[in-house]
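Format notes (please read before filing issues)

Several people have asked whether sequences and structure tokens are stored in separate files. They are not. Every record keeps both together, in the order shown below: the sequence lines, then the token lines. Line labels are part of the format and must not be stripped during preprocessing.
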Amino acid sequence: MVFSRRFFLGLSLAGVSSAALARAGALGSVGAVAAASGTIAPGLLQRALDALERHRDSIEHRDFMGVVDFSLPSRTPRFYVVNLSDGSVRSYLVAHGRGSDPDHTGRLERFSNEPHSNATSAGAYRTDSVYVGAHGRSIRLDGLDPTNSNAASRAIVVHGAWYVSEAMIGHSGVLGRSQGCFAVANSNVGEILSTLGSGRLIYADKA
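Then the structure lines:
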């Protein structure tokens, strides 16, 4: 999927400054095909770009960013990796925390920043170091907003998980649940970590 230059300019008119978009690199899309529908909800993308500008002193790299739409059910690819140079978007499956979906409906019911909540937190995150842990290669996250300020102490990371797959959706209709981490498919974690390495933004919320 590709967002055109016109689409990003439309966001500017809707409230995101041209200066913010230029710093993000979003105006570098030339000749791209408009395909906004069916990808990231425009309001959510706008808030992510706002966060990129708001936290510009903490975000070293503005070539790619992650946007996660937790208003969508877990069976839908809802972890978007946006190329801010050409407007292209790739989407991946991602699980939410069991504390956010206690009945395992596949829909996130609530966010929480509380320790031991096993819930997903909303807000802007900065990607930190890649490490190898219990789930293999993973990337640490720093929460930049009051709604996710405990991310580091809660060990909220992006990691691969066996319970995130098309096979799991085919079996139960929903993905499994994490303990608040952004759990992605083992087949995708390498690509996501390589693209969203240290010093980039991931923004998570409901549209």
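For reference, the curators noted about this record: The first strand starts at residue 64 and ends at 69. Confidence is low (pLDDT under 50) at residues 11-20, 25-38.
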